[in-house]
Amino acid sequence: TTACGTDATFNGSKVRNENDLQMEYTVFNTTEQHDFELEAGDSIVVDFEGEGGNVSLTIQKDGEDYIYAGNKMQTGSFSVGASEAGIYTVTVEGKNAKGSIHVFVEKAEE
Q: How many Cβ atoms sit within 10 Å of the Cβ of residue 86?
């Protein structure tokens, strides 16, 4: 069955693992959270493609203040570096959104 109207929360695909969160969606009206374990010098990379609606994204270390907060994200890529080791929580919220997002860890060069 297919979901119609504004009652649908998510229609699409999700892939998640330790260092990766990928979502492609035709409907995204919910919130997704994913924890990444980073070492100092690692980065969280975000590739986003918006085809409609609104997507906001926050990155927070160990429940502290946000190190990144963006609303009404535009298509593009960016990275946020980790100055300290810890658990970094990425929260993605969609409102009538259509498109895709890929969030992944880029390890610091040794």
A: 16
Q: Tell me which residue has tokens 């997507």.
A: 55
Q: What is the pLDDT of residue 6?
A: 53
**Joined tokens for residue 39:** 């070492």
The HSE-up count of residue 109 (CA atoms within 13 Å, CB side) is 0
Evaluate whether 55 touches 99 at the Cβ level (below 8 Å).
Answer: yes
Alpha helices in the chain (DSSP H): none
Question: In the predicted model, is pLDDT for residue 1 greater than 70?
Answer: no
Whether the model clears a pTM of 0.85, i.e. scores above it, the answer is yes
Q: Hey, what's the torsion of the CAs at 56, 59, 65, 70, to 10 degrees?
A: -30
Please tell me the distance from the alpha carbon of residue 28 to that of residue 6, in angstroms, as a whole number: 10
Structure tokens at 57: 């994204």
